[in-house]
Design a protein that fits this description.
Blueprint: H1 2-7, H2 15-23, H3 29-40, E1 45-47, E2 60-62, H4 64-75
């Protein structure tokens, strides 16, 4: 887990993020908040079990399984368990 935290940045949520979320065309408000938070933090990827919730995202969307595979490939390790 420490290695994963070292590889990732966690975006925060504040009033500016919530205001941005209200303007996004994302159908689910929770997904809009996550997308707005990533935009404000200038992140390049969102990791989620609901990639369909981001149909018009300008940010890359990865499932947890895809992230683990990417990190494993980059680190030369075997991929972790499936996220279902």
């Amino acid at each position: 887990m420490t290695g994963l935290v070292r590889e990732c940045r966690i975006a925060t949520i504040d009033d500016a993020v919530l205001r941005t979320a209200l303007t996004l065309p994302t159908p689910d408000f929770e997904d809009a908040v996550q997308l707005a938070s990533a935009l404000h933090a200038q992140l390049d990827t969102i990791v989620t079990r609901d990639p369909a919730g981001y149909p018009e995202s300008a940010i890359a969307i990865l499932s947890p399984t895809a992230l683990l595979a990417l990190l494993s490939q980059r680190n030369g390790e075997e991929a972790g368990p499936s996220d279902g």
